[in-house]
Specification:
The protein has 18 helices and 14 strands. It has two domains: 197 residues, 3-Layer(aba) Sandwich (Rossmann fold); 237 residues, NAD(P)-binding Rossmann-like Domain (Rossmann fold, 3-Layer(aba) Sandwich). The strands form three sheets. Strands 3-2-1-4-5-6 form a six-stranded parallel sheet, sandwiched between helices. Strands 11-10-9-12-13-14 form a six-stranded parallel sheet. A two-stranded parallel sheet has the order 7-8. The relative contact order is 0.09. By secondary structure, the chain is α/β, with parallel strands linked by helices. Helix 12 packs antiparallel against helix 13 and helix 13 crosses helix 14. The structure holds nicotinamide-adenine-dinucleotide and uridine-5'-diphosphate-glucuronic acid (UGA). One of its GO terms (molecular function) is NAD binding. One of its GO terms (biological process) is UDP-glucuronate biosynthetic process.
Amino acid sequence: MKITMIGAGYVGLVSGACFSDFGHVVTCVDKDPAKITALENGKMPIFEPGLEALVAKNVAAGRLSFTTELASAVAGADAIFIAVGTPSRRGDGHADLTYVYAATREIAASISGPVVIVTKSTVPVGTGDRVEDIIRELCPDIRIEVVSNPEFLREGAAIGDFKRPDRIVVGTEDEWAQGVMRDIYRPLFLNEAPVVFTSRRTSELIKYAANAFLATKITFINEIADLCEAVGANVQDVSRGIGLDNRIGSKFLHAGPGYGGSCFPKDTLALLKTAEDFNTPMRIVEAVTQVNDSRKRAMGRKIIQALGDDHRGKTVALLGLTFKPNTDDMRDAPSLAIIQSLKDAGIQIRAFDPEGMEIAGPLMEGVTFATDAYDAAQGADAVALVTEWDVFRALDLPRLAAGMNAPVMVDLRNIYSAQEAGRAGFTYTSVGRGT
Ligand code: NAD
Ligand code: UGA
């Protein structure tokens, strides 16, 4: 199969590299020349474990290439995937489909033969209909089908998620397009990955429903964590105690500083907007977005409280800036809201993140960046663990404490226990562990 992937970001680049690894010939197109130049030189524009080697292997095999020229890349393609961004539209929270429709018009201007066009971007219900209208209007004589094929990979685990998905969702009722999608995903079907063939609109909604459900699960356990603190219970045991029930499931029950990232925050908002447009309000998801927003600020207050009444002018060592480990993505990271509330309270910040500091730098005026966790803690009054990178899981706590003014630890990811932190001299606070 010859595949064109439009957008070489987290999803487009990972999907393109994995499809080429299945044996397809893939051209990734991006309008950002810096990204394409970097990729042509073997440099990854994002941090994603395993990606560099996968890209190098498939480039060497002649199956994967990169370009800024959409027109030449789509010529002769069997399928064209749209994997451009769909951020929140400024001001109203709807998904901003500017990039999707711009890519659609560029596709329409360049295709000449039958082709399946696939929306891999997360797009609101009805977007596929609009994409189809645009292309049919501009290319009335070319056979096309527009398929929805949402992506469920997680950053930091993207290649494994793509190659061993819990399911593949394909939204089209057209037999030819179903056949093309079967051929594209053949290696996964052979591995018996479940596939859901459905209508395009249903497929589009499945993606938002999945993300909103996961965001709800996290927010639920975060509220249980608050209750645990108040009543003297342990949220990790509650998670285990409920998660062992197969009907609930053990995943996405880790209490923390609130969900962040490039998708849950924007996708829950976009779902609310769709629901509003169709007069079917979704009060649960609405509450989830509000609770999660206020939680991030509450985590800032938790750190301030741990510093005591005379917190002004004190220094916090903040460990972990990205919204989760194993990514350099800073979009909607809880650290951003936490840092803002610390700065508002007159607190100095020394931060360290293994991969996120380059991107975080311009977003964090006034923050001092350290070379590692120990450097960050040097002279600090508290250390706040915000993202659970592996490198923070086995810190030499006595060494960390030794460089600090007053060893206080606020562990927002429940990496350590009160006992082990206490042994190293820390006054320790975590999330939802009242016992
Ligand atoms: P991203 O911002 O990392 O990448 C998008 C890329 O598209 C950018 O490099 C941009 O330059 C490029 N682009 C935009 N318009 C273009 C055009 N007309 N021609 C060529 N290139 C163009 O975005 P992302 O995180 O990869 O997300 C893409 C979509 O996938 C979004 O809808 C997102 O919700 C969805 N998604 C993301 C993830 C994730 O983990 N990041 C997971 C599942 C789904
Ligand atoms: C999420 C979904 O998990 C993917 O299935 C989906 O494809 C993707 O969004 C998307 O649509 O972009 P991602 O945002 O990469 O993936 O990362 P997650 O692992 O889901 O984490 C999201 C946020 O939730 C992080 O801030 C993380 O710290 C938080 N989280 C996650 C918790 O606080 N507790 C948990 O138990 C799990």
